[in-house]
Amino acid sequence: MNSDLDIAFKEAFSQISKLEEAVAPDIMLKFYAYYKQANFGSNLPFDGETDVRNAFKINAWMQIKDMSSNEAKKEYIKLANSVLNNNK
Predict the structure, then answer these.
(1) pTM for the structure as a whole
(2) Chain mean position to CA 53
(3) Residue 4: helix, strand or coil by DSSP?
(4) pLDDT tens digits for 5-27?
């Protein structure tokens, strides 16, 4: 059974995924980190051969590695609402 938080998280992810306008790279890194933390926790993949783009993504994720899954979902939703409200 999905909680209200899970439903809101999935809806926020869906809305952000449908955006046609570009979102600033630093905001996209936050989305990436919150999404990964919400879904995978602190199981950070790092093979030592990561390209620069993926290194930025992993670094963003590492910065929130102690955040709980639920807190990451809440932060993702807040960020999504902020971006979506600015794009109206």
Answers:
(1) 0.83
(2) 16
(3) helix
(4) 999 999 999 999 999 988 999 99
